[in-house]
Amino acid sequence: MTTTASEARQRYREGLVAPTSGAAGGFTQANLVVLPADWAFDMLLFGQRNPKPVPLLDVTDPGATTTALAEGSDLRTDLPRYRVWRDGELVEEPTEVTHLWRDDLVAFLIGCSFSFERALLDAGVPVRNIEQGRNVSMYRTDVDCRPAGRLSGPLVVSMRPVPASLVPLAVQVTARMPQVHGAPVHVGSPESLGIADLSQPDFGEAVEMQPGDVPVFWACGVTPQAALMASRPPFAITHAPGHMFITDVADAFYLEP
Amino acid sequence: MTTTASEARQRYREGLVAPTSGAAGGFTQANLVVLPADWAFDMLLFGQRNPKPVPLLDVTDPGATTTALAEGSDLRTDLPRYRVWRDGELVEEPTEVTHLWRDDLVAFLIGCSFSFERALLDAGVPVRNIEQGRNVSMYRTDVDCRPAGRLSGPLVVSMRPVPASLVPLAVQVTARMPQVHGAPVHVGSPESLGIADLSQPDFGEAVEMQPGDVPVFWACGVTPQAALMASRPPFAITHAPGHMFITDVADAFYLEP
């Protein structure tokens, strides 16, 4: 039985806590960042200036609790787990945030690489983190994002080992999905991104390279969380890693011709 | 002799007043909207929510006079002609706006269909407005943009007559350039956009259909000007129609794979 997006959201709303990987297949999942209106311009500009790591799928009106990406959804309850940040420090990981919601909060829904992993598999490109049952490896780089107002921080990338002969195909497939991070930012040469040791990711888990694999790096939706940690707004809510918001939008919608 | 973008900007800065169509071929031209910081969040959100008519190529920091799209440029002098708006009314069309610039102004550089007209010609699709030496025909539609804060207004479209057999090619070519309005929003049937008479455009000039031509409609960069007229911010500066900002970015940069 396939689960629809609204059924999946309903279960999380009713208390299910689990990573969303593989839930409601074919529906686009999104990273969540929620900030007070006073910081919303900076975040919107940060997304506009850094579209590869921060592809904005929707931005809500201040105080709104739902998004145009999912009718009837409630952003306060429909993710399985949240993170609450004060002055850039993680203070809590609750399973709903109704008690924390305020009239001045603006929510940012940001594209997620889950959408293109499915497209890679469909094209015959193996996705090692899925094969190995692990979270994808993510790294802080020494590349700075273009700052916006008070927000700045490093580009965070996810890495997927890709067989050398399939690297061009992996580039082509993901290039067609610019709203979910798009083409890789880098192929090979982790050291030129300031990554000393691929086996020591900053976020997620280490994923093993197979013989003949090349490390391919995509801009990652953890980038805005890294900017929050670096820039310390007084208050923010995000999704917890791997516990995304499931939209009603089909992944295919974000496929460019 | 080809003119570079910086040479063209220099001439306008020194006083040349002329439409920019055909100037500095191969370099991306941009629509300009400048608003006080108080309105900048609404405009940025309007662009985020309406990416086809308002594809944001760059947004400046408050008070900045240059853009990352063109090093050494001066947004106050480098367009051949500007429009100044007060409370949604056009009050002046000066050739530079140095005397009007303020520390709280934010500039929005917005993609322009000049980029895709060149791509259409290169692909063998005739561009009737260029053939006829006229400005493209533009129409207010009865389709509303998605509002953002205080900004709302109708979708404005440009129309180009395309030979029926070349309509699919015209769609394919422009779909590859989402940052300069992308694929058409509508093919044929002007009445279903609320356009009663193609020979009476709301902006630009009437362009004659040739036998076998079909009207093809693209989202248009005049849309934000229509929103300014409808939403009446106290102060705004825009480019004058056809008198665009010439960036240092090659048109090919905005071509998706």
Automatic annotation (TrEMBL), chains A, B:
Q: What is its EC number?
A: 4.2.1.-
Q: Name one GO molecular function term.
A: lyase activity
For this protein, the record's Pfam families field holds: D-Glu_cyclase
Record's keyword terms, sorted = Lyase
Q: According to its UniProt record, which protein family does this protein belong to?
A: Belongs to the D-glutamate cyclase family.
Full protein name: Putative hydro-lyase GC722_11120
* Organism name: Auraticoccus cholistanensis
